[in-house]
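Incident log entry.

Two folding requests arrived from the same account within the same minute. Monitoring flagged them as a possible duplicate submission, but the sequences differ. Recording both here for audit purposes.

Request one:
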Amino acid sequence: MLGLLLESDDDFVAGQVLCDKLDVPRNELLKRIDSLRTRGYVIDASGGRGYRLGPLPDGISEAEIAPLLSTSDLGRRIHSFAEVASTNDEAHRLADHAEAEHGEVVIADRQTHGRGRRGRSWVAPKGSSLTFSIILRPSLSPARAPEITLVAAVALCEAARELGAEDARIKWPNDIECGGRKIAGLLTELRADAERVRYAILGVGLNVSTEAGEFPQGLAATSLRIERGGSSVARPLACARVLEHLEEWLVLHETEGFAPVRERWRALSSTLGRRVRVEGAAAVEGEAVDLADDGALLVRTDAGAVFRVVAGDIEHCIVL
């Protein structure tokens, strides 16, 4: 029911059309509409025109997100909090001690100690962004674990594009940006034995309705609202779309391997073909020429040597 109204793009849908598609009688349709209204959904009714979905609730609990989901595993159980130190930490606790299953999600309206890669903090204003972590139990060897981040980057970029950030691209390895401004980021943390990955925690941060003036001064960032020209998108819908794209790409990765992920990553990359500077133990500067079969970034220096970059930060250099 909710999906049919979402697909209407703010147009009215005739009651008989809804009955036919849902294969229910009119009295059952009215009960379903009443049920949605009691859960906070605004549904407009117009004689002769049918029903139209109003603005979606912006809460981040399972009650708001689950009705919008069409996944099989991801998000089928959602642990929501008004505030936590870190959703990744809470997800680790659930995976370690509560035997949380594959696909369980931890989401918070505010993180007090959210983190990004290499110990950085993740800035997420309360009520205007999505910060959540997903517990994954992939059938992967530890050697292939870095592929998870690249799978997630493709999925998150695709979701951002669907949600209105049409210029979203991937900055290696885990940032989603629009015109050089960060809109989303990922943090993957593992628990692994010698032979297998016990579980992975995938942390996601997505700027949804943050206004330009709400970001810290000097931070090159953007949000879905900014990229959509000021129009808003409800956080539950954004979360549902991210989870749906992620499940789709995880299934493809499991069945067909890394090759299709690598192909799509290349197409969405803002890094390949750019001059980059790699920060780390050994600084390297050159052109990012490809993504290797194992997910390493290949950088060719001016001297012609090709370096494999498997970890570290990169900067896109401006060529004058």
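Request two (distinct sequence, not a duplicate):
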Amino acid sequence: MPIIVNMDIMLAKRKMTLTTLSEKVGISLVNLSILKQSKSKAIRFTTLEAICSALDCQPGDILEYQKEEV
């Protein structure tokens, strides 16, 4: 998948656990884990906004586009 989720990098930079992020944004630990592992098919803007607010970052800090090799 060409969209890479770098949430683990931002969590490390903020010295925050996934459990703490889950509590701050009100999203289940399971759903955040699926997103963090890039196994999610979609993300709502409200979810992305809540994550960015909790991590004090921009969407581009979390999501990255990489071209697929042909």
